[in-house]
Amino acid sequence: MEGCPACAVFCEEQTAMWGALDTWAPKSVSMGFNRALWQKIAAADSAPWYRRLADSLRSGAWKVTFPLAAAALLMAAGFMFDHQTGRVPPAGPGATVASGVSVSDAEQVEKTLDDIQLLRQFDAESVTTASSVM
User: Fold this and answer.
1) Rounded (10°) CA dihedral 125, 126, 132, 134
2) In this structure, is the dihedral angle defined by the CA atoms of residues 11, 15, 18 and 20, taken in order, positive or negative?
3) How far is 12 from 20, CA to CA, in rounded Å?
4) Rounded Cα distance, 93 and 115, in Å
């Protein structure tokens, strides 16, 4: 400290501060201090939920959690839109997905197609039979 003037000044300031703290006397605590303190704590605990919520929002802790919650909500919404449940992709290019078709409708279509195929076979046999008779 003898070679550094800045260090010497700092030492003098610290010495003055410790001297001031030695002369400082705190105020004495009143007799009802503990009772008043516990009454305030009990009043804060018995406050309605909305008042406690408002007090917690005033503290500023939400300033960090709100952007994180918003980012998580956006990511969840993006995932839900990208991976919708119940959506079946088309079988190939240009294919469409039929919706609202019941099993009985599909069976009726299959039976109709079988009947059409049977009628074509009868028609083809009648043409071959008629040409062989001539």
Assistant:
1) -170
2) negative
3) 12
4) 30
Q: Which of 121, 15, 79 is nearest to 129 (CA)?
A: 121
Return the beta strands (E) in 3-113 as ranges: none
C-alpha span between 115 and 121 (Å, rounded) = 10
Residue 100: phi, psi to the nearest 5?
A: 80, 20
Side chain identity, residue 46: S
| b/e map 36-50, b = 16+ CB within 10 Å | eeeeeeeeeeeeeee
Q: Which two tokens stand for residue 11?
A: 């030492």
User: How many CB atoms lie under 10 A from the CB of residue 79?
Assistant: 9
Cα distances from 26 to residues 22, 29, 68, in angstroms, run: 11, 9, 44
List pLDDT tens digits, range 26-73. Answer: 888 888 998 999 999 898 888 888 888 887 777 776 677 778 888 999
The reported pTM is: 0.27
How many whole angstroms separate alpha carbon 97 and alpha carbon 91?
Answer: 8
pLDDT tens across 112-130, in order? 999 999 888 888 777 676 6
